């Protein structure tokens, strides 16, 4: 298979300006994903999709390819990462380069390792999967969560079966952690729904599942790196 890693790094972050190039433990945030992708050894191309020449220069200095800048249409506040992925795949095809799989590696998941990436490919082969999506165990069980009515009544808050169950005895639950989205190119271009069929989970350790959106997230990631307590 020919595989491409796509690292989306739009410059217009509203919550944390320029977070994709903010320094994390001595390296720009995007460098962590670039280096993990290259170190995994599974990709024919590791590229960064960005609308910024500044970001592109930083990405290239970290070892990634940036053969073109992202279009304005794929960089708007209403566009999604999947719009950027589709644009990247089609532009590479225009350049005569075709890939069997793509992996969306969001730079906001810097603690994902090369072994996680290789593990997701192993899972794809083992399951003969169309898509592999990374997950981690939830910090709080959804069995202890619910919406509240205006009255604030707790009468129907709990599922009766688990009302008095100890936390450690509740069913184990998982959440998307945003670190790895591995999918076959042809199927994605056909319908754009990576969850349509033959989609399987790759489980990651919670300490490697930090998703950076705020300055606090940065501080948590920095602490995990400096203390060497990644799972």
Describe the structure.
A hairpin with a 2-residue loop joins strand 2 and strand 3. The chain is α/β, with parallel strands linked by helices and 231 residues long. The radius of gyration is 19 Å and the shape is globular. It is 30% helix and 18% strand. It starts with a strand and ends with a helix. The protein has helices spanning 29-40, 53-61, 81-94, 114-127, 185-191, 215-227, and strands at residues 3-8, 23-24, 27-28, 45-49, 101-104, 131-137, 174-184, 199-203. It is built from 6 helices and 8 strands.
Which features would summarize this protein structure in a list?
231 residues, alpha/beta, 6-stranded mixed beta sheet, two-stranded antiparallel sheet, 18% strand, globular
Mean pLDDT: 93
Distance between the termini: 30 Å
The class by helix and strand makeup works out as alpha/beta
Number of strands: 8
Summed up, what is this model?
The chain has 231 residues and is α/β, with parallel strands linked by helices. It has helices spanning 29-40, 53-61, 81-94, 114-127, 185-191, 215-227; strands at 3-8, 23-24, 27-28, 45-49, 101-104, 131-137, 174-184, 199-203.
